[in-house]
Amino acid sequence: MPTPFEPLQDAALSHFLMTGAVLFALGLAGFLCRRNLIIMFLSTELMFQGVAISLVAFSRLHGNDTGQTFVIFVLTIAAAEAALALGLVVLLFRRKRTLDCEAWAAMKG
Amino acid sequence: MEYALYIASVIGAIALTMMMPRRGHTPRTLGALLGAATLGGLWLFLAPVATTEGAAMTYYYVFSGLAIAGAAGVVTHPRPIYSALWFIIVVLASAGLFLVMEAEFMAVAMVIIYGGAILVTYVFVIMLATQSGDPRQAEDAPTYDRVAREPVPAVAAGFLLLAVLLTVAFDTDRIKPNPNTRGLTADQIINGSKTLGLERILSDRPDARLAKRIGADHTIRMPLHNVERVGLDLFRGHPLGLELAGVILLVALIGAVVFARTPIDPGDE
Questions:
Q1: Can you tell me whether residue B179 is helix, strand or coil?
Q2: B94–A29 CB contact, under 8 Å
Q3: Quick check: B166 and A18 CB within 8 A?
Q4: Is the ipTM of this complex over 0.95?
Q5: Residue B24 phi/psi, 5° resolution?
Q6: How many angstroms separate the CA of residue B212 from the nearest CA in chain A?
């Protein structure tokens, strides 16, 4: 019987990790420098995608499915975060009629 | 090899900075070309390292290129609705990457949850919370969409992190499959769980039923599918996490309802 789960080779794993890292870095840069609240949250979703790719790659490398189970939990948190964050964004927009995050600079304290 | 990764990170950072929206002329096309050339050059440089059999690597290059291009589009496009559309490209491409890694369940879940649920929510919010204006006229966009805040330090921070991550990711001496973390094989799962009725469930799988119908030997164990393995790991290994995820979703649902019903006086500060 063929083994159901061939481990990924190290070099190929590095490539998948690179894609995950690039997505994470782009998401981080976007989160730090865009001023639109919605795009900032889209950037966090990009970071989630990068982490998910890395988790699945490691799951494949070690032949252990727990990595993919973790992605399910990441998706759960992403869904909860999207619901709450977007609810807040709509609330903030109704209050000041702008999505500019610098309109809320007073909350820096 | 580290130097190639560092150089690629620096040029990629310059390309992303060029693509960031700014006052006056934004050299988006030039930045995109520079970024694509950097990525292609890095892949060409690393190609001798990649030893996986051909087809998988080809699909990797296609999907990965799409994902990275989509990500650059998300963070640099001045109109939020186009950012959301670019994000759909990222989701579909990373679902393709999951298929290359034989994680079929995650690929489908990613498309359904991200593409189907989360992105629709984003598009609704963008429609609710965007000032009217002709979407084809970039000048109609509000200033906070047209001008990025401090793009140079932000991109520098992101790509500094990227350079460090790449150095670790390509240090193949350090990243090795660890035999101690290897998951259970199909036989181990089945033998260890006869008392739980898993045997009966597995003999009721479509391929086992088909084998029974055509009179073939249905006791031969087919390898577990990806969906079956993830399901077993989720429900047998992480039952508490599953319950907590349900609680988190319920709390988020109630919280979203509370936010949506909060009365706001528009001029109220």
A1: helix
A2: no
A3: yes
A4: no
A5: 75, -150
A6: 19
Angle at which helix B80-100 crosses helix B54-76, to 10 degrees, equals 160
- Of the ranges A48-57, B5-14, B194-203, B250-259, which one carries the lowest mean pLDDT score? B194-203
Token match 């970071």: residue? A47
Tell me if B122 and A38 make a contact (CB, 8 A cut-off).
yes
- B84: which chain A residues are within 8 Å (Cβ-Cβ)? 42
CA distance B173 to B165: 15
Confidence of residue A43 (pLDDT cuts 50, 70, 90): very high
**CA–CA distances in Å: residue B68 to residues A65, A88, B15, B74:** 26, 29, 13, 10
pTM > 0.95: yes or no = no
**Distance from C-alpha of B259 to C-alpha of A91, rounded to nearest angstrom:** 7
What's A19's DSSP letter? H
Best residue of B1, B20, B125, B166 to probe chain A, by most A CBs closer than 10 Å: B125
Residue A46 contacts residue A22 (beta carbons within 8 Å):
no
Interface contact B241, partner A, CB < 8 A: yes
CB spacing of B68 vs A16 below 8 angstroms? no
